Structure prediction request, 123 residues.
Amino acid sequence: MKATPSSSSSSSDCLFCRIVSGDIPANRVYEDELCIGFPDINPQAPTHLLIIPKRHIASAASAAEGDTGLLGSLVAAASAIARNEGLSKGYRIVMNTGDDGGQTVNHLHLHLLGGRRMTWPPG
Prediction:
């Protein structure tokens, strides 16, 4: 399924849209009609996976009221992946937004981190 760009951003140069389209390979550990999950290339925990919507949304700041179902599906997918990964002792779900929030790819995504004790504050 090809990603559909939002009106606010082109997806032709988006790394994650290219993963969704299959132009860039990724080890998909999860996929449904709305999103995919795959390992982060720079893991910060023993388990560090990304969950991205197949439709391009630049960030949480770009999400609209009509995106609430999709956002809930991303969290549900993260929960399913956590179960599949055996993260029964706990995990962290992170969504970075914007430069100051640490977002490095301008395509909304969740980080699923687990396999070790998380500390607070995260940084």
Q: What stands out?
A: The two ends are 36 Å apart (CA to CA). Residues 1-10 have pLDDT under 50 and may be disordered. The longest strand covers residues 47-53. The CA atoms of residues 3 and 17 lie 6 Å apart.
